[in-house]
Amino acid sequence: MPLKLVRVDDRLIHGQVVAVWLRAVGADRIVIVDDKTAQNEFLRDVLTLAAPQGTPVEVYGLTDGLARVTELASSPTSVFLLMRTPLTALRLRELGVQFDMLNVGGLGAGPGRHPLYKNISATDEEMAAMRTLEEMGTKVELRIVADDHGVPFASVDKR
Hints:
By secondary structure, the chain is α/β, with parallel strands linked by helices. The chain has helices at 15-25, 35-38, 41-50, 62-73, 86-94, 124-135; strands at 3-9, 29-33, 57-60, 79-83, 101-106, 114-117, 120-122, 139-142, 151-152. The radius of gyration is 15 Å and the shape is globular.
């Protein structure tokens, strides 16, 4: 399967993190699945400009994203799949997109969010989604940058 990295990062494409991850995993393109981002033309343009030069960026809502990711799964193209929340990752998985690991790299703090690891916090609903993904056989790993050591979600999940 050409999904080189399936990542949750509420900032989506930003700075060196994406450039380093793209090199580390050898992805040919970035596919973002997020309903709000797909509906915001300005944000789509900003994200396209934020990607490393020559890296195609595609932005979809959940329905169109499911179709595109499914299509890319049978192509030779290697994909860096990005989402803002583990809820989207769970929905894609429930709809049949197979991925062995979910990298959680950036979920900011705020009201109703529980600190997990470094700059990663999650709501109760996001925590439940990550638990469900693990129950479905997808390993959930907290890992901000490629050269960090991954921290298993289960090790920070304080049910």
